[in-house]
From TrEMBL:
It holds the Pfam family SprB. Residues 425-501 form the Secretion system C-terminal sorting domain. It comes from Hymenobacter qilianensis. This is T9SS type A sorting domain-containing protein. It comes from the Bacteria. InterPro entries: Secre_tail, SprB_repeat.
């Protein structure tokens, strides 16, 4: 959230002797100003006052540790759309925001408010709209969960892409069919039971009746999504973990490649191909989902040349040169009875060379790309002929990411100069994921990971970050159960949260 600032207004006046003096409210003016000069001065004062009030919507919030009350909890968020709403890809939809709040106390609370960011993401994973927002409504009934419509008030727009109609229309949310909506970096507050404790709430005075939540997904009616575990290496198997949002339970699942209509929700042991699913809820509403499992190409066996030792020449020991190496591959050589060694780079030719080999005992050379290892090249199958064309091996990604369109910088209408830029890949992940972040101003930065319930599960970075430098940290997904997580990057009073999925 932005901090309030108040400009110091000072007037420059001209003394009778022609000298310039500075006047403020604790100094007197020297001489009298002509009317024209006063008009200019007053216009300047009005301009500064307008500039000072331009931040009137900025929000001052208490520190998180002052929010000690745990009485109320935000449990779900959705848009008020028809239960069986269907839409065409790219169709713009505008609807009110509904929040469900659980009140665990024996008293009805008059008002409930939130401050945070709304983040709308395209089906390709690009953020197309992000804004700092707030809302307030009530009453929150005692000992139950109350769902209420909340008008969304925009405080500051950070991203507004020309590639989407997503945004805030009036006090409602507009999104395009296929986009996802999240509320992130939430500060929540509530009042006591007094009938006079009505909206709006003063953000700086909400403690201790307040709380925080890293993020919550906004449901847009019955929809189905999946976490795709791609085939890691050629010959392996993939999986699809399905999640259903909105709708009325129970649900039935119909996979097009399986007989019958009462199929399992999730799929495992899948080969390469496209898998289509239809989900039906108890109200007979349907949602469809499609995923493509991709099998990586075989990592090519290394092509090499052997330079034998010479009895009378300059080569004292044989060595091997890797020909036409695969971009991004790691090469390794081992001889019987020895340990694996890595090649060195020839300073003159740039070639990869395995030096100081032992003659007469053979060898085994392999190439590894993204954890997948090739068949070994040995004395029996060696070749020094490069293929006519090589296929680059790309680390497997989700079906959505495989067709991802990158949004150019020109398509973004407004990005705050002090915004945090961050990405996570691969996403979804079943193993390690790399999280990158860059900040506009040097200073302390914090990167934390939360589960879907808002509990912190990992701190990935807690230190100094330089402006404009891309930092990388590793999230060990193998240590986490499958599910939706949110990571939060905090720096210079700004926070950026994004979703990352772990699927095993």
């Amino acid at each position: 959230m932005k901090k309030l600032f108040f400009p110091c207004l000072m007037l420059f006046t001209t003394a009778e002797n022609g000298s310039t003096k500075v006047s403020s409210e604790n100094k007197s003016f020297t001489g009298l100003l002509p009317k024209a000069t006063w008009r200019v001065a007053l216009t300047f004062v009005a301009f500064l006052l307008m500039a000072g009030t331009s931040s009137a919507q900025s929000v001052v919030l208490p520190s998180e540790d002052r929010c000690t009350s745990k009485d109320l909890e935000l449990v779900s968020a959705r848009l008020d759309v028809e239960a069986c709403q269907s839409c065409q890809p790219g169709e713009a939809i505008t609807a009110p925001l509904l929040l469900a709040i659980a009140n665990k106390t024996g008293s009805t609370r008059t008002s409930f408010a939130f401050w945070g960011d709304i983040v709308i993401t395209s089906k390709y994973g690009n953020v197309v709209y992000q804004a700092e927002v707030s809302g307030c409504d009530g009453k929150i009934l005692k000992n139950t969960t109350t769902e209420l419509p909340f008008g969304v008030n925009v405080i500051d727009v950070e991203i507004d892409s020309t590639n989407s109609d997503a945004g805030i229309t009036g006090n409602q949310i507009t999104y395009e069919c296929g986009e996802t909506i999240d509320l992130t970096n939430l500060f929540l507050a509530w009042t006591d039971a007094s009938p006079k404790s009505t909206c709006p709430l003063e953000s700086s005075l909400i403690a201790p009746k307040c709380g925080t939540l890293p993020a919550i997904a906004v449901s847009t009616g019955l929809s189905a999504g999946g976490l795709v575990t791609q085939i890691a290496c050629n010959g392996g198997k993939g999986a699809i973990d399905i999640s259903v949002f909105g709708g009325v339970a129970p649900f039935t699942y119909d996979w097009a490649d399986l007989p019958g209509t009462n199929d399992p929700q999730d799929r495992t042991n899948l080969g390469a191909g496209t898998y289509d699913l239809t989900v039906t809820d108890a109200a007979n509403c349907t949602a469809t989902y499609s995923a493509t499992i991709i099998e990586p190409a075989v990592v090519a066996r290394p092509v090499i040349s052997i330079t034998e030792a010479t009895l009378c020449g300059p080569v004292a020991k044989p060595y091997i040169t890797v020909l036409c190496p695969i971009t991004g591959a790691t090469y390794s050589l081992i001889q019987p009875g020895g340990t694996a060694k890595s090649p060195t780079v020839n300073a003159t030719t740039g070639a990869l060379e395995f030096k100081d080999l032992v003659a007469g005992i053979g060898f085994s050379v392999t190439a590894t790309v993204d954890g997948c290892t090739s068949e070994a090249t040995t004395c029996d199958n060696k070749t020094n002929t490069c293929p006519v064309a090589t296929t680059s091996i790309v680390a497997p990604t989700s079906a959505k990411a495989s067709s991802q369109a990158v949004t150019s910088a020109n398509s973004v209408k407004a990005i705050s100069q002090d915004a945090i830029r961050t990405e996570a890949y691969p996403n979804p992940t079943g193993r390690n994921a790399t999280i990158t972040f860059a900040v506009a101003k040097s200073g302390h930065a914090l990167v934390k990971v939360y589960n879907s319930k808002g509990a912190s599960v990992a701190t990935l970075f807690d230190g100094q970050a330089k402006a404009g430098v891309t930092n990388s940290v590793i999230l060990n997904g193998s240590d986490l159960p499958s599910g939706i997580y949110y990571y939060k990057v905090t720096a210079n009073g700004k926070t950026q949260s994004k979703r990352i999925a772990v699927s095993k």
